[in-house]
Specification:
single chain; 420 residues; alpha+beta; Dipeptide-binding Protein, domain 3; 12 helices; globular
Length: 420
Amino acid sequence: MGDLRRKAALLLLALVFLCTACGNQKTTPTPTEAAGQELDTSSFLVAIEEEPDTVDFQCTSIHYTIATNVFDRLVEMRPDNDGNVTAMPSLAESWKKSEDGRTYTFHLREGVTFSNGAELTSSDVLYSFKRLLTHPDSCNQDIAEIILGASALEAGETDELEGFKVLDDLDFSITLEQPFEAFLACLSMPGASIMDENTTLEAGDLFGTDAAHTIGTGPFVLEQWKPGKGMLLVANDNCWDDAPKSAGLDLRFITDPEEIRMMFENGKLDILDLDDQGSAAEFFIHGDIYQDRIQKVPQIGISYIALNEKVAPLDDVRVRKALQLSLDRSTLLDVVYSGRGLVENGIFSHGLYGFDPDLPAIPYDTKQAQKLLEEAGQDDGFDLTFSVKSSSTQAEMTLAEHAVEMWKAIGVNASIDVVN
């Protein structure tokens, strides 16, 4: 959460996730893979997935499909009966918070096992947090940095996490450096998923890159991972939260939007994410063929442009504010996402813990933006490099292109640099 606070979020759009699903509702037994036999995937749901370099949820900030389907967290953030997002039990059956707001005492569900049969214990939770803070490739340390002693563990000054106390196999306590109201929300993030200590230690670098060594407690088991082709997830019949209704998931690594669309129209794809289809999504959304199959759900996410505050002239808040004010975000929402979403005024979107409905609206005001640039000594504008990942979706590329054009109105000459 700390990294989010340090980022300058200019473009804030809460999107709506849309997907269409074929109407064939098969009810078949969960397949089993006998020794020497190929896995029967005929009853699996087929979907598209971006190929990850790793599914180690502690070491990625974008590839969370495996984390959310193969693993679980101590708590999950879900809306209550009043529509407010609140922490709900998951692997942790219950918890208590001390009067000073610093210490949380958790009780794990009894009888929870990983898909390899190992029982979940407090030691696994401790290991997960210590690894999160010490793994050389970890990028989600901020989830646990509020825990007492986390900084010393990260710095290599100790091998222990002072604020984490194992009380017994099912009970443990976590003490924070200071009260932090969003701590439970942090524990619900994919990066805070809980792993099997023994299996993960034995796996070493194979965890997150090899299916046989990526073991969780979730509703699915990562059965196969074929680089360049896809992943197969099979239902975990022994999941503590009951087996999923789907026998499995067949995730294909395909990136061409037209090929994906044709697969769906030809009945070779069960689920189509229209957010990744760009303007092609209009055929499904506004046509009369698929209307009864479109499912719309709020997506708790943000599209934003982050600025490097260490680079001049972006180290001047007036310049950053000018870039923000010169973006017509309502137009961007309409052009890039066909109006499917909301324009936000803060880094926490609707439905996310911490959302503030009372934040003042961020206006579109090029005159004020130019005035701020003059105050910052940038009367003649400046050059700016807009870095975009090569793996970005068409919508993200389109967003970048339109932002660059809007900045020209205030004299900022931005160029897009596609990086691997």
